[in-house]
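subagent[fold] <- orchestrator: predict structure for attached chain, return tokens only, no commentary.
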Amino acid sequence: MKRALLAAIMAVLTGAPVQSAQVKKLTMAEAVELALKQNHNLKVARFKVQEAQQEKAGAKSQYFPTLSNETNLLHVTELQDIDIPAGAFGRIPEVGPSPPYDLFIDQGKTTVVGSGMSLTQPITQLIRVHRQNKAAEADVASSRDEARYAEVEVALKVHEMYYNLLVAQLNRQAAEQQMQYADEDLRESANEVQNGSALKVTEISSQASELESKQTLLTADLQIDDLNVQFDDLLGLPVGTKLELDPAVKTEFALPPKDQCLRMAWAQNPEIRSAEDSVTKASAGVSVARTKFIPDVTAFARYSYQDGIPFLVHNFGTFGVSMNYDIFDFGRRRADIRQEQAQLREAEENLARLKDEVAVQVEQTYNKLQRTKSMVEVAQRVVDLRTEGERLASNQVQQGVVLVSEQRKASAEAFKAQADLLQASLTYVLARAELDRTMGVVSQF
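subagent[fold] -> orchestrator:
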């Protein structure tokens, strides 16, 4: 602790940056769970679901009455007067004409105030509102399917990144073994050239092999860094977090029959379900367009107050029914129906296309699983042979039969065989993850 504190103090005093790379250990299941929780694209997809739900709530509110207020303050530039000439009502004995002179009576006020509280309830429009609610429900379901599709895509991407990073790390170990072999081979070649038992070209060839091994190792380091940064972003972790992955990946799993996989895919695939929701929405759109031929009948009740209009009380109420109908619109409503019908046919054709595509994906992925399983078996036999070769080379070095470089070479080949086995195993598991994605399942393998 004292040494670490002293090193930190010296770094601050000298201006050197203090870096502490965070290391996070992850299994495959933990990585999938972390990505489903923190991935930015998934968060955006879930917010879209909330947006669609609020839109559905707004569409549902159209079933109920609406209470509104309208208030107006008006100024009239000129009023209508009542002109009563003198004597218009005759003459009164001993008084004279009635009225005795011309009268001019203003009607109302130049400033008029009006306010009304209205309660309206749509009647025939409820048919249209019902179909609009069906369309809004389809939007909510579609947004959920899109969020589900994003989840299975992220899960598949996690599998790909996890396996690629594991393979890259094992390839780096193989590159280290290859470089050790190249160093030992260069040392032995230099000794043989000095002893006169080999030509200079042998040493030059060994130097070139050593440089190529260093280049391979540097390339492996660069690839690991790139994959680590991409994986951090996928998991929603701070960039620069070092990931320590568990190489014990499950490669044994039960594979359902092909026809069962196809049925599950048609029932659960998010793209197919979203396409089915689009068909439902398009069908509701056709119904909504047809309701435009129905008159809009609305019941209303209104309480009003006014000040400034003559011959009208200040407070009064009205109630009744209003109807609104477009008698002729030059074919606009029929065009709307044809447009909605075209969208319905388009949605139905898109659904049929997606079902065919999913069937092809299931067939291809199922065949890929069978082929990659055979590749794993072959790679396992190669690992057994390379491991046995490494053991024999180690024994021969101890007996002085072969050079140390041969042992290094056998070790590098054994590591390379293990990397190939891991690559084949992960390709097999990744094919299962692709099948799960097609079936709409978040893969946990």
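orchestrator: received. Logging for downstream: The chain has one domain: 20-84+113-438. Residues 1-20 have pLDDT under 50 and may be disordered.
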